[in-house]
UniProtKB/TrEMBL annotation:
Naturally occurring in which organism (per UniProt): Candidatus Chloroploca mongolica
Name this polypeptide is given: Transglutaminase family protein
SUPFAM superfamilies linked to this entry: TPR-like
InterPro entries: SirB1_N, TPR-like_helical_dom_sf
Top-rank taxon, per record: Bacteria
């Protein structure tokens, strides 16, 4: 991949900030740049300034949150033409998670359309936050009169709290108020990037692209080096891509740090097989 080192360095520079200060769009563009190679994607940031400049007069003419949301929705989904395509779930395509491609094609996964909504709203000083529901990412618009839950994937449609609770129940069953409030809490910017990377990881795996799946895991570990599942997966993906010594290092570290893990016997078996291969080579 051309420009691998500069793109990875750009991502590192983005995530070294305190979480509220992480430049989300810039970091997402760095992910897209590394995976796709070619020219630097940073110039795509100018699109968000254009979006905010163009919609500002409409937003400034409003008097409440409902009208502000309507103005944003009209501009982003009617004027600009962003839309959610349900077929993206049936046909895994990393372009649905590459921010430059999403801007160009006007469609992507829910989290990417939400990112565009957030970045535009932040430039206008609007109280918008991510809403990381299980299986669906949305936008929460803070309002003293009652928060609004906006779904950019469906043209900015409004969800009720009951709708959000049903989405949670679809994945977790009946949950108490405490767990529900944790799920509904705004995710940090690092958590949003991690979700984008997990989507990319699964997409690359579905397409049989172990090399790019590995790069996704590497960047997930930059966000959280303590994640045992990603450490294990990095080892397994290093194994798939022929990096046997590095794979053993990761798998042995996983075993040492997680002796009670359910898959520990299988990981030990794989590690022994890799060691046997290395011994035979010597």
């Amino acid at each position: 991949m051309d420009h691998l080192a500069p793109a990875r360095q750009r991502f590192l520079n983005c995530i070294k900030h305190a979480d509220p200060e992480v430049p989300l769009a810039a970091a997402a563009l760095a992910l897209a740049w590394e995976d796709q190679g070619g020219v630097d994607r940073e110039p795509w940031l100018a699109h968000f300034d254009t979006f905010a400049t163009n919609v500002a007069p409409m937003v400034n003419a409003t008097s409440n949150a409902t009208e502000q949301i309507a103005a944003l929705n009209t501009y982003l989904f009617d004027t600009i033409g962003f839309y959610g395509d349900p077929s993206c779930y049936r046909h895994p395509d990393p372009a649905h998670s590459y921010l430059d491609q999403v801007i160009e094609r006007r469609t992507g996964l829910p989290i990417m359309l939400a990112l565009i909504y957030l970045e535009t709203g932040w430039r206008l000083g609007l109280p918008v936050h991510g809403l990381a529901l299980p299986g669906h990412f949305m936008v929460r618009f803070r309002d003293p009169a009652g928060d609004h839950f906006v779904d950019p994937f469906s043209g900015g449609s409004s969800w009720s709290m009951a709708d959000c609770e049903r989405q949670i129940a679809t994945f977790y069953g009946a949950v108490g108020d405490e767990l529900s409030s944790i799920i509904m809490a705004p995710p940090g910017r690092g958590a949003i990037l991690a979700r984008i990377l997990r989507n990319l990881k699964q997409t690359h795996l579905a397409r049989g692209d172990s090399r790019r799946a590995l790069t996704a895991v590497e960047r997930l570990l930059l966000l959280d080096a303590s994640d045992p599942g990603e450490l294990r997966d990095r080892g397994l993906l290093r194994l798939r891509t022929g990096q046997l010594h590095a794979a053993i290092t990761d798998l042995e570290a996983y075993v040492q740090r997680n002796p009670a893990a359910n898959d520990i016997s299988e990981i030990k078996r794989i590690a022994r097989e890799v060691i046997t291969q290395l011994v035979k080579r010597n």
